[in-house]
Design a protein that fits this description.
The protein is α/β, with parallel strands linked by helices. It contains seven helices and 13 strands. The strands form three sheets. Strands 8-7-6-5-9-3-10-13-12 form a nine-stranded mixed β-sheet, sandwiched between helices. The structure holds NADP nicotinamide-adenine-dinucleotide phosphate. This is Deaminase.
């Protein structure tokens, strides 16, 4: 019997998310807690993929991701972020997109990067694209609002005028006193649409809000061996005075060519 290779492992992961395996990938079992086991030998590359991504297949998982330099920057001060991380890390990001129901970005990213947020580097379905834009400041010419490549939710504060376009739906959310949209409210709005497995793709401010709210189950931080020296920060949380208050979640590392993925197990809400 041949060893389980990376293509088979990837199909197993997708089947675990869709529940539509139809017995096509019986040699790998991924349980409801995101633990995997295989009947037979597994190639090292396939085992690494399963170790990294099986936890994401748990129902209702919310995962954040950031690709940063050694000095914790995700972009230059002008917003240039193509590319902090390498090709293997981009493939990893596309795998994350393919496993989730929805991919969330903040207004800063939608405006600066003009991303498509589709799955292009691996086989898999595009997630619903979600733009958090309380002030409706993202330009209507952005690809998310014009390309029709996948459904897009434009989340704005109530009373703001959202963008129209092919496959674009407005979600109006009541902001808090500071004008912020509570991450729990956002996740509830997505869950109401059947979107429960969620990737918070960036940027730093958006991921940090979900992290501060205790709503990330996992955080994938990909560190590239590069020093930018200035620019947009990755994670920004409330100031602390001693390191006792720092987050020290259980963590696994995986090599992605020259980059290193830190897979933080945050345990999720509650
Ligand atoms: N390397 C990477 O992995 C990566 C990934 C993504 C993006 N990027 C880069 O990161 C930069 C942008 O990151 P950023 O941290 O500056 O901005 P960002 O997180 O993309 O967007 C932040 C903005 O989104 C809105 N927003 C997000 N969550 C919100 C919430 N819960 N409530 C209310 N508003 C919310 C706010 O808009 P308002 O300002 O209108 O209030 C907020 O200022 C870009 O240059 C992009 O290229 C890098």
């Amino acid at each position: 019997m041949t060893a389980i290779d990376i293509d088979y492992a990837w199909r197993s992961l997708r089947d675990a998310c869709t529940g539509r395996g139809d017995g096509m990938t019986p040699a790998v079992t991924i349980d409801a807690d995101g633990r995997w086991r295989a009947d037979g030998a597994v190639e090292p590359e396939a085992a690494a993929l399963l170790d990294t991504l099986a936890p994401i297949t748990r129902a209702g998982t919310v995962v954040g991701q950031l690709g940063q330099s050694l000095d914790g920057r995700i972009a230059t001060i002008t917003g240039a972020s193509h590319y902090v991380t390498g090709a293997a890390s981009r493939t990893h990001l596309h795998r994350l997109r393919a496993l989730v129901d929805a991919v969330v970005v903040g207004a800063g990213t939608a405006q600066a990067d003009d991303p498509r947020l589709t799955v292009r580097h691996v086989d898999g379905a595009d997630p619903v694209r979600v733009v958090l834009d309380p002030n409706a400041r993202v330009g209507p010419d952005r690809l998310l609002f014009t390309d029709g490549a996948a459904p897009t939710l434009h989340v704005v504060a109530q009373g703001r005028r959202a963008c129209r376009g092919p496959g674009v739906e407005t979600v109006a959310v009541a902001p808090d006193a500071a004008g912020a949209l509570a991450p729990a409210t956002l996740l509830a709005a997505l869950a109401a649409r059947g979107l429960r497995r969620v990737l918070v793709e960036g940027g730093g401010l958006t991921v940090s809000r979900f992290l501060a709210a205790g709503l990330l189950d996992r955080l994938h931080v990909v560190v590239a061996p590069m020093v930018i020296g200035s620019g947009r920060p990755a994670v920004t949380l409330a100031e602390i005075e001693t390191l006792d208050a720092a987050l020290r979640p259980p963590c696994c590392t995986h090599a992605l060519d020259a980059d290193t993925l830190f897979d933080l197990d945050l345990g999720g809400p509650g």
